[in-house]
Amino acid sequence: MDRQDALARRNRRVGFAAFGTVAGMVGLSFAAVPLYDMFCRMTGYNGTVQTGGPAAPGAVERQVTVRFAATTHPSLPWRFEAAQNAMPVHLGEQGLAFYRAANPAAVPVEGVATYNVTPEVVGKYFHKTACFCFDAQTLQPGQSVEMPVSFWVDPAMAQDPNTRDIRTITLNYTFFRTLADAEKAGVLASAGPHVGRGSVTR
């Protein structure tokens, strides 16, 4: 009897250990994407824009040109463009840019935006303090909107030997029909979370 009890206890321990291992693996699989996003957001890895954090520290003499790009996933029947092609900004200076979206369809259409910067190495120095990313936007038939983006570039960029010679930074937004489409396109891991919706001008 004692031998059977010991065997039963050992089997239970093995079962609990196996269950714990499987549960842990499942948990890690669900956590992998947000953990990777957090890592990218904190380090600027893979061109991920730094979000939130302190306000712009104030302008220094050094300038860069920020270019603005806009793309639309084929699943979304919107027109989407940057309101300006480029602007010069001083490092440490708060910048404000706008994007425009329009729905030419005969029905309401919802879209959601992701973003990134190039060259990727400047991601950790590019801070967005307000944007329209990751917030679903529904446009009625024929409706158009302007969406603001507030940002600044860290003056520390000028001291980094990997970035000090860079004179042009491109901020790109892509609008998708759903976040699932964005995930299939492989852009979520290099996008980071939104930092608050800007006022949408309808």
N- to C-terminal distance: 78 Å
Provide the helix percentage: 10-25%
Classification by helices and strands: alpha+beta
Taken together, the total number of domains comes to 1
Assembly category: single chain
Low-confidence stretches: 21-52, 189-202
What do we call the CATH topology? Ctag/Cox11 (Pfam 04442)
Major sheet attributes: 5 strands, mixed
Shape category: flat
Order of helices and strands: HEEEEEEEEEEH
Give, in spatial order, the strands making up the sheet with the most strands: 1-7-9-5-3
Global mean pLDDT:
76
**Count of distinct strands:** 10
Number of helices in the DSSP assignment: 2
Strand content bin: 25-35%
Radius of gyration in whole Å, from Cα?
A: 23 Å
CATH architecture descriptor name: Sandwich
CATH superfamily: Ctag/Cox11
CATH class: Mainly Beta
Family: Belongs to the COX11/CtaG family.
Keywords: Cell inner membrane, Cell membrane, Copper, Membrane, Signal-anchor, Transmembrane, Transmembrane helix
Protein name: Cytochrome c oxidase assembly protein CtaG
Pfam family, one: CtaG_Cox11
